[in-house]
Amino acid sequence: MSKKITSFLIALVLCLPLLGQNEWENPKVFERNKEAGHVDFIAYEEAAAARKDDFGASSNFLSLNGTWKFNYLDKPADRPMDFFKGSFDDSSWDQIKVPSNWEIEGFGLPIYTNVTYPFPKNPPFLDNDYNPVGTYRRTFEVPADWQDKAVILNLSSVSGYARIYVNGEEAGMTKVAKSPSEFDVTPFLKKGENVIAIQIFRWHDGSYLEDQDFWRLSGLEQDVYLYALPKVTVWDFFLKAGLDAQYQNGVFSANIDLRSFDDQVDQAGKIKVEVLPVGSSKAVFSEEKSFSSLNDAINFSSNIPDVAKWSAETPNLYDCVITLMDAKGKTTMVTSEQIGFRTVEIKDSQLMVNGMPILVKGVNLHIHDDVLGHVPTREMMMKDIRLMKQNNINAVRTSHYPQNPLWYKLCDQYGLYLVDEANIETHAMGATNQGWFNKEVHPAYLPEWAPAHMDRIQRLVERDKNHPSVIIWSLGNECGNGQVFYDGYDWIKERDETRLVQFEQATENRNTDIVCPMYPSLHHMKSYAEDSEKERPFIMCEYSHAMGNSNGNFQEYWDIIMSSPKMQGGFIWDWVDQGLKAEDENGTYWAYGGDLGGLNFQHDENFCANGLVSANRTPHPGLVEVKKVYQNVLFSWDQKSKELSIENLFDFTSLSDYQFTWELYKNGELQTSSSFTVNTAPHAVEKQKIKLPKLKGEDEYYLNVFVRTQSATEMIPA
Predict the structure, then answer these.
(1) Which domain holds residue 477?
(2) Which residues are catalytic?
């Protein structure tokens, strides 16, 4: 038998599972030629530029954002089949901006649904009589100095099943939204004009794993860019910045992974790692190591005395600069990542950061812009962080998928604790705490779906593993608890011993470090708080549903939380209303489910409007109560002793930096006021005598006490 026939038969056997089955309806095939997950970075020429972390300032970065040619059709059978060819005529096509969601740009219908899938439920199959397909094309030129470099295409988030072509050749395929999809396109590039073509199906088998409570939108929804690397390059790095047993000195380690894109290039060289406080030129750690091949383990470690520690209250950061040199010592690339020294652990049934038990005063956050849909912007991220910091919110759960990489950098910089969640939700198939699902069809319990689940979990961790703001990984949301989630938990615990893992679907099974229910009853909370045999922290992944004029019994939650050390808070559902700005004959309004042409589809009306702030971030009245209950300073008054008790709930902040005043009102009129000084340490209580005039029994008095910031920061005014 000839080699050709043998090869043909082998290929035929391998393809048998696919015969008669569309690729977009096959969970066993969830990617092709896609790079494994790793830290997002760009190569720079020198350290100063790398520390600024401005991708656009690097000669190794080329943005493909902008205007693309675009074709939209309602079903796969009508899609253009030869769209990827260089000779294809796209002159009659529409134009679309990238990044964007094509429904927001007027192609197809925005659909909002909470639980029910927007297509008939029959995994892994779809109704292909209505499964919109968007096809993109554009040209670009590769910079002349990239000729001897490897070139990677990064699609920061593609919502849909996407096939990617460069100059008529398939670069690869992806089915995962919200995580980067990267492809080595070096072999396909040429001098002069290049053509990139991408075809995206709105729904696919992976859509069964993306059944979150949000607008279902499609397309190239985050940045698209190319970046260049030397043929022998730094490819990944795990930077661990912890604290010693006394939480005083830094414990630093770096594991560097190298990669070669050309076996003919010399594989020997040097790596230098430096750690410098942000804004300083004086390194607290610097070491250089040589390597003779890419198989050499390249590890650095050191204890660094008296580091400035990172927490949500004190977000002190260091630049870790990594310099790659060839065997002669010539620099071939530099990159940099910001790190923060902090330790996350469980002790005495409590979540601890830097040895202190913290209270999680959190919210859940979707990526949402009332004009742009699921396209994130720095402006909106900064608005969110500013409002959160001004309203005593210290933590965010990235519900229910990874956020844009910039979000993590900003949370590192300004100080927010993050629960980083994998993009897995199969709510309409049933969830563990609902108990009405069929394990014979639920993806979490079927082995053919397991690799796609694990891929999403691993990509979450590998991209975000260096961010100090990420203190907890989450395996997913409302998605069952099959064997793959035990495997995912075990994989994370082996890969990253510096953080905790939570999973609401695990309830109190072994594959969660934190008991993290959603919407528990007050009775259940009291029972857990009083049970001395419960040894895990209790931190609600969702609670105090903020729809309408809500959060009204919020203090009752916190009365229970404050009653037991292992009750440590939770994440309000949710931060922002998911309204989309629209206009009709009556004026401008925020559209919700059933609007924008979706009335005859499955939709959940205004259930997308659950936020503490409106879609443009105008605070709702409920946020005022949240700010009050989340406050970090508590007051109580002893009428007999005329003493005011001040309790400092901050974990790392003394009250000496704040202004304190009291005012006495009699029958609604101000009688007297005074300022006073407080130096209460974190987690301490201080008592102060307040000299009040004699109070008459028949009158009504109010003693109002205020604590205010003395100096302004970028996030909080004086």
Answers:
(1) 344-628
(2) 478, 542
